Amino acid sequence: MAERASATGDRRHLKVLLVTGLAAFMAFLDVTIVNVAFPDIQRSFPGSTRAELSWVLTGYNVVFAALLIPAGRLADLVGRRRLFLLGLIWFTAASALCALAPSALALVACRLAQAVGAATLIPTVVALLLPEFPPERRIGAVALLGAGAAVAAGAGPPLGGLLIDAADWRVVFVINVPIGCVVALLAARVLRESRDPERGRMPDPLGIALLVVGLGAFVLGLVQGNEWGWVSAATLSALGAGALLSFLAIVRSRRHRSPVIELALLRMPSVGSANAATLCLSASLHGKILCDVLFLAWIWRYPMPIVGLALAVGPLVTAACAAPAGRLADRYGARLAACCGTTLYAAGSLWLVLRAGSDHAYVADFLPTSVLTGVGNALAFPTLTGAAVMGLPFDRYATGSALNATARQLGAVVGVAAVVAILGSATVAPSLAELHSGWLFTGLAGVAASVAALALARRGPALAEPVDRRGHAAPAVPALERLHP
Questions:
Q1: Which of 433, 415, 442 is nearest to 54 (CA)?
Q2: For residue 182, what are the contacts with CB-CB under 8 A and spacing of at least 6?
Q3: Residue 264 · residue 471 · CB < 8 Å
């Protein structure tokens, strides 16, 4: 009887992991799958500049990043399963609207709506998944989600290339509709409701507004800098306003009873360094993907299906190396695995600075970077995802995971915005020299991630004392009682 119950429990673990993993994969896939559609979107809206169309990419990431933490608190209050389903349905409907967008402005607006659904969906994933696993397997479950997100980010360009060749850029949004419907039906059958009223207070609404507007203004200054002029009043005002409003959001988070950013968690061992490394590595990854797509499509003139196949090696290597990389991290610790991974990713970017030219030499010049970044991705992202929550008590895993997802999305914002600024906002194709500058930026961002990863503990603690939102000791509460009151 006990063996039968154990087998049933294991099957349930797999079902919940499948449902939550598919939802997270779909949300993170949309961060990068649109990158490969960017040249085709430019052709569809020839009157829009590259800087204007970049909001299709950066607008999604800004809203996604800014709403992750408040959405996680809302899920604690109203129910995680309920918000998961709401976010999934919202994301699916917004994807359909993106596919029908008649103009660049409408596409940007629909992408912002899509990001709201993704931000509502992602924080509930960890909170729904972890109660299904015994304590000793929870860190492994979080690492699996991190590996899935890393594979999703790498799989976006090759999958997008194949879909665009079959039709056009609109199909990268249409594909979300059947997947979203299937996942919603499975989730309604498999997932169990949970909530946490004691920690369910919504964060400071003014802090949320300051963070969203501040990030948006800062990214606006970055992507429009070339067109407006870097020392123009408009650019300096946007950058200055973004920096000021973001600073005010941090100040309010230090003082407010329910802050939008839990700064106390970032001061805990390894949590701050893991999130800093995640931000830098995400900037490197998303910036490099955009450079790679533009290089293959505009410099080597590959058709879209060939672009997709050329970029497929990286995610395949990541998927193949995910399990061995996890065992390496378990044996030798997070610091070594993360430092090796981020260093390999930086080396992959810098390789292209030295080797990529106008002559087609895929095996000699482009294949090595795919292998290096694929292995680096497998080593770094799952390790950093686990390290970001390893020192936290169970009742803070969801919040810690939301912070890490926020760092990942902020990195995507910075990476795409910086590369767009480096390449310029013109409607013409980027030059090879501009792409070399873009890869140099992504390589340096990878180096910065390696430096941040050096501050990780060699091995994270198994348990940590609960803390309140200001960092003071809080009464310990059994985790499962909190999840199922």
A1: 415
A2: none
A3: yes
**Run of H or E residues at 1:** none
Average pLDDT of the residues in 408-427: 80
* H-type alpha helices, 299-333: 304-311, 313-332
Give the per-residue pLDDT at 241. 94
CB 102: neighbour CB atoms within 10 A? 7
Q: Hunting for tokens 């109203």 — which residue is that? A: 78
The whole-number pLDDT of residue 483 equals 29
Half-sphere exposure of 454 (CA within 13 A, CB side): 7
Rounded distance, CA 371 to CA 352, Å?
Answer: 12
Which CATH code is given to the segment(s) 2-203+258-483? Answer: 1.20.1250.20
Measured over the CA atoms of residue 261, residue 267, residue 271 and residue 276, the dihedral's sign is: positive
The Cα–Cα gap between 151 and 439 comes to 21
| pLDDT tens column, 188-243 | 999 988 776 565 567 788 988 888 788 778 877 877 777 788 889 988 998 999 99
Measured between alpha carbons, how far is 104 from 68 in angstroms, rounded to an integer? Answer: 26
Report the interhelical angle of 104-129 vs 80-100 (nearest 10°).
Answer: 160
How far does CA 409 lie from the centroid of its chain? 4
How far are the Cα atoms of 122, 185, 278, 288, 415 from residue 444, in angstroms, in the given order?
A: 29, 44, 14, 11, 11
